[in-house]
Design a protein that fits this description.
The complex is a heterodimer of chains A (145) and B (115).
Chain A: E1 4-8, E2 12-16, E3 22-23, E4 35-39, E5 48-52, E6 59-63, H1 65-68, H2 78-84, E7 93-99, E8 108-109, E9 115-118, E10 121-124, E11 136-137
Antiparallel strand pairs in A: 1-2, 3-4, 4-5, 5-6, 6-7, 7-8, 7-9, 8-11, 9-10
Chain B: E1 11-14, E2 18-26, E3 29-35, H1 45-66
Antiparallel strand pairs in B: 1-2, 2-3
């Protein structure tokens, strides 16, 4: 199977190896899309880009919530757990979308609807854990003391 | 829009696979039971709308920050979180409402510490 080529409006021509293609059987909520790939354009920052294969103009910054929120908790429906298929959900890759902003204090992530990737299949699910907000601030406020 | 009147215990069939049962009516509240094929996601509308809006906003906000489509610059405007990688780093305590908080050491880019 040959590489998939994406003429990305943001990153230019991308060649995606078959093993880097992710299938999203249900798409992202409200955005759809059956195939995405993860791009690490900023190594070491923890930020990745979830780039659509079908839509060359669609890319969302994402981070692993477990890397930035030590008290991140995940509670999902049994149906979602079954759909994902991972025996140990903690072993799956997990991402949340980032809503960037000029002021870092305004950068928020959506802990309510994480994207779980297991065996190259992705699902955006609803997280019902207490405190899993739709707009959780990614950066702590600067210490003004 | 099709409008139907149903009583508790009665059902509506949508297509061949989706069965909606009126479980209970109490005042302004209606409890519905929905049987649908595996793999067909079902959301409360307000949650579906909110997540959809966040997804779209995340994609749009990235456009604003990344500027021109130059692969060497793309994403460079994203803030860089300062992380505490040490396994013993204490997590910040939860807010009174239980909301998840950025971990200790997370700060704005100018205050980035790389250790």
């Amino acid at each position: 199977m040959s590489d998939t080529v994406i003429e990305s409006s943001r990153f230019g021509t991308l060649q995606i190896a078959p093993e880097d293609l992710l299938e999203f059987p249900l798409g992202l909520i409200g955005l759809g899309g059956l195939h995405y790939t993860l791009l690490d354009r900023n190594p070491g920052t923890g930020f990745l880009w979830l780039h659509s294969v079908e839509d060359p103009g669609l890319a969302l910054p994402v981070v692993d919530p477990r890397r930035f929120f030590h008290n991140f908790a995940l509670q999902i429906a049994a149906e979602d757990r079954e759909r994902i298929g991972a025996e140990d959900i903690d072993a799956a890759s997990m991402y949340v979308t980032v809503r960037a902003a000029p002021n870092p204090a305004d950068v928020v992530v959506n802990l309510r609807a994480p994207i779980i990737v297991w065996e190259r299949r992705g699902h955006q699910v609803l997280n019902t854990a207490p405190g899993a907000g739709l707009q959780a601030r990614l950066f702590a406020a600067p210490d003004t003391a | 829009m099709l409008i139907l009147t149903r009583r508790p215990g009665e059902r509506v069939v949508i297509g061949e696979d989706v069965l909606v049962t009126v479980m209970e009516v109490s005042g302004q509240t209606v409890r519905l039971g929905i049987a649908a094929p595996e793999g067909l996601p079902i959301y409360r509308e307000e949650i579906w709308l909110a997540v959809k809006e966040e997804n779209r906003a995340a994609a749009a906000a990235a456009d604003e920050l990344a500027g021109t489509p130059d692969s060497s610059q793309a994403g460079s405007a994203l803030p860089v979180p300062a992380e505490s990688e040490s396994s013993g780093a204490p997590a910040t305590s939860s807010e009174p409402d239980g909301s998840a908080q950025p971990q200790a050491g997370s700060a704005t880019p100018p205050a980035l510490e790389t250790d």
